[in-house]
Amino acid sequence: MSKVKTSPKNIKEGRLSYEWAKSHMQILNNTLTRLKKSKPLKGITLGFCLHITKETSVLLIGAKELGATVACCGGNPLTTQDNIAAFLASQGIHVYAWHGQSVKEYDWCIEQVLNHKPTILTDDGSDMNVKAHFDKKYKGMKILGATEETTAGVTRIRAVENQGKLRYPVILVNEAYTKHMFDNRYGTGQSTIDGYLRAMNLLLASKRVVVVGYGWVGRGVASRFHGMGSKIIITEVDPVKALEAHMDGFEVMPMAQACKVGDIFITCTGMTSVIRKEHILQMKDGAIMGNVGHFDVEIDAKFLLKKSKSVRQARPNLDECTLSNGKHVYLIGEGRLANLVAAEGHPPEVMAQSFSNQILSILYILKNHKKIGNKIINVPEEIDRQVAVDALKAMDVNIDKLTPEQVKYMNSW
Ligand SMILES: NC(=O)c1ccc[n+]([C@@H]2O[C@H](COP(=O)([O-])OP(=O)(O)OC[C@H]3O[C@@H](n4cnc5c(N)ncnc54)[C@H](O)[C@@H]3O)[C@@H](O)[C@H]2O)c1
Fold it and tell me: Is there a single domain that holds both residue 89 and residue 226?
């Protein structure tokens, strides 16, 4: 069934993108260089379920250089960049990913990765971890542990642990400060601007942009659109986050109200059904919707794409839906991760931090899986701090150190 598009043109383009990303991922390069001599992953098979982007290619080739056998599939049916998949395949990585998969094909690809019998899994959204836990085919498979990249995956794997069903240790890479404070916030902030602009190419200044959810992703998205001159409206369900948004100077209101005034909508919640039929029917003619939460469940895309009077592609990755009330509204990338479907995802400098956390967490599992047991843990503090130190060094930023007097002061009462 594999449809990896390994044409020479794709491989060449993929290599160029890999080289471009690698040259801007200094933190990850430094981490890999430090480890390369000892080949700490020799004899280990790693299974990755990640968005196949140029940044991911730097991680996967890096893992191979540390000695691992690497198998990977995409983290979403629409986010694979075909030239990157082709380049990875040309480098001896086992790749099961192409752009525009059906859900069935996406599932098949995850199974192909698990069929390589990886002993450590790196997941983005927990689709692979859930399969490894609950599909009978993989019941007896020996897995030392896994790492999880994103908030949505953290929620799902925690549910597995809460039901007492976790069968190997999982490190929550998303929970590292040097991951979510930068990747979720600045990474998604910038790449969402990129995705929306590529999809619609309209003026952002003066538009009323409704950001749904004011967590790490929502805060990044709101601040970047605000920086472009948009007027930001926040909808939230958490009173503390809503208060924070209000104090940050943004309008806060419920979706029932926001849906009538917004020009652009961006869902960032990780929750299901936050923009529903009743909201869509009240939107202004020309309203544009997109989602940057992990799963395509935040906007009622089924209603838009199946129940509209007509649907046509207005631009690449932008569907124009004519509603029963005669209004035209627009959906980016079928409601899937707009920053990855319509653009290329996070910039390399940001992913270098996330993926340094990934590599160091994989090595931590290899060494400590027995000690951790069948539990979920956060990224150990020493790894988080090491990544911050590496990041500052890569960005040529120096900071102060506590003086002996200050250390003494801190430890006295
Ligand atoms: N697009 C990307 O590249 C990317 C990157 C990182 C994370 N993510 C995904 O983005 C989503 C959000 O991640 P996060 O780290 O910001 O999570 P978070 O938990 O920090 O924030 C989510 C926010 O949504 C709010 N929320 C929940 N239900 C809501 C509702 N019905 N209406 C309004 N607000 C609601 C919550 O109160 C919370 O403040 C997750 O699915 C995550 O996996 C995507």
Answer: no
Over residues 152-169, the pLDDT tens digits come to 999 999 999 999 999 999
- Minimum-distance ligand 1 atom for the alpha carbon of 292: 1
Q: Which residue in 240, 331, 185, 213 sits closest to 232, CA to CA?
A: 213
DSSP lists the bridge partners of residue 252 as 234
Whole domain around residue 203: which residue ranges?
Answer: 184-341
Residues 123 and 230 in one domain: no
Is 257 within a domain?
Answer: yes
Task: State the pLDDT confidence band at 2, using cuts at 50, 70 and 90.
Answer: confident
Q: Is 254 in the pocket of ligand 1 (CB under 6 A)?
A: no
Q: Is 271 in the pocket of ligand 1 (CB under 6 A)?
A: yes
| CATH number reported for the structural domain that contains residue 239 in this entry | 3.40.50.720
Q: Do residues 194 and 237 share a domain?
A: yes
Tell me, yes or no, whether 41 and 98 share the same domain. Answer: yes
In this structure, which long-range contacts are made by residues 320-326, counting pairs with CB atoms below 8 Å and at least 24 apart in sequence? 323/280, 323/281, 324/281, 325/281
Q: What is the pLDDT of residue 1?
A: 75
Cβ of 184 below 6 Å from ligand 1: yes
- Whether the Cβ atoms of residue 85 and residue 95 lie closer than 8 Å to each other: yes
CATH number at residue 149: 3.40.50.1480
Number of domains forming the structure of the chain: 2
pLDDT in tens, 357-379: 999 999 999 999 999 999 999 99
Shared-domain flag, residues 146 and 270: no
**Same domain? 196 vs 96:** no
Q: Is 152 in the pocket of ligand 1 (CB under 6 A)?
A: yes
Mean per-residue pLDDT for 308-331? 98
| Residues in CB range of 374: below 8 A, 6 or more apart | 166, 167, 168, 169
In Å, what is the CA distance from 389 to each residue of 31, 194, 386, 397, 410?
11, 29, 5, 10, 22
* Atom number, ligand 1, closest to the C-alpha of residue 153: 43
| Structural domain includes residue 402 | no
Say what the pLDDT of residue 351 is: 96
Q: What are 93's two structure tokens?
A: 């990585």
